[in-house]
């Protein structure tokens, strides 16, 4: 699986996301220059505590994505609660309060599809644990644009529905354990 040309990583997760990301994000080295954009399904009626949770545990900068912000290398961005996170053609971020997708805002599909348009084959997309089918269409869009599609092995996911749906939509995706996903991302930092 190629890593040399990857310029950005997008990750989508839902139920079980906190534990999965606690396994991955703190393990990323400070030398990682690739930006990581993450959508986790969080209730719209509360503030997103994910940035606070991961900021002190990670060597990379962790922040909530802001509208019209230029994507910066070596930064982990979380979509804010109740906003879709999009990547614009010039690789800046946009926030949208458009309709929910798969009952979710932020929606993984919205991030993945817009990032696929912006980065094409220079994008890696990862679907982690979750309880619905959000991200399946987006992962297929990433693969169709020539990007790297990765799915957490449903057998190892806390909630396997989302990875299983992603594999059904994108059967060419690489199936990996959470440890292998971390190793792949660390490999991006080593290139």
TrEMBL record:
<dbReference type="InterPro" id="IPR000673">
    <property type="entry name" value="Sig_transdc_resp-reg_Me-estase"/>
</dbReference>
<protein>
    <recommendedName>
        <fullName>protein-glutamate methylesterase</fullName>
        <ecNumber>3.1.1.61</ecNumber>
    </recommendedName>
</protein>
<dbReference type="GO" id="GO:0000156">
    <property type="term" value="F:phosphorelay response regulator activity"/>
</dbReference>
<dbReference type="Pfam" id="PF01339">
    <property type="entry name" value="CheB_methylest"/>
</dbReference>
<dbReference type="InterPro" id="IPR035909">
    <property type="entry name" value="CheB_C"/>
</dbReference>
<feature type="active site">
    <location>
        <position position="14"/>
    </location>
</feature>
<feature type="active site">
    <location>
        <position position="134"/>
    </location>
</feature>
<feature type="active site">
    <location>
        <position position="41"/>
    </location>
</feature>
<keyword id="KW-0145">Chemotaxis</keyword>
<feature type="domain" description="CheB-type methylesterase">
    <location>
        <begin position="2"/>
        <end position="191"/>
    </location>
</feature>
<dbReference type="GO" id="GO:0008984">
    <property type="term" value="F:protein-glutamate methylesterase activity"/>
</dbReference>
<keyword id="KW-0378">Hydrolase</keyword>
<dbReference type="GO" id="GO:0006935">
    <property type="term" value="P:chemotaxis"/>
</dbReference>
<dbReference type="GO" id="GO:0005737">
    <property type="term" value="C:cytoplasm"/>
</dbReference>
């Amino acid at each position: 699986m190629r890593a040399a040309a990857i310029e950005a990583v997008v990750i989508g997760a839902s139920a079980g996301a906190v534990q999965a990301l606690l396994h991955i994000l703190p393990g990323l080295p400070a030398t990682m220059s690739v930006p990581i954009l993450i959508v986790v399904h969080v209730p719209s009626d509360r503030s997103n505590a994910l940035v606070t949770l991961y900021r002190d545990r990670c060597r990379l900068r962790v922040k909530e994505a802001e509208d019209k912000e230029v994507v910066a290398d070596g930064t982990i961005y979380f979509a804010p609660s109740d906003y879709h996170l999009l990547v614009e053609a010039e690789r800046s971020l946009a926030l949208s309060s458009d309709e929910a997708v798969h009952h979710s805002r932020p929606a993984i599909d919205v991030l993945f599809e817009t990032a696929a348009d912006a980065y094409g084959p220079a994008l890696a997309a990862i679907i982690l644990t979750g309880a619905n089918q959000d991200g399946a269409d987006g992962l297929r869009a990433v693969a169709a644009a020539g990007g790297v599609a990765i799915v957490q092995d449903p057998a190892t996911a806390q909630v396997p529905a989302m990875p299983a749906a992603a594999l059904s939509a994108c059967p060419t995706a690489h199936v990996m354990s959470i440890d292998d996903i971390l190793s792949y991302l660390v490999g991006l930092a080593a290139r």
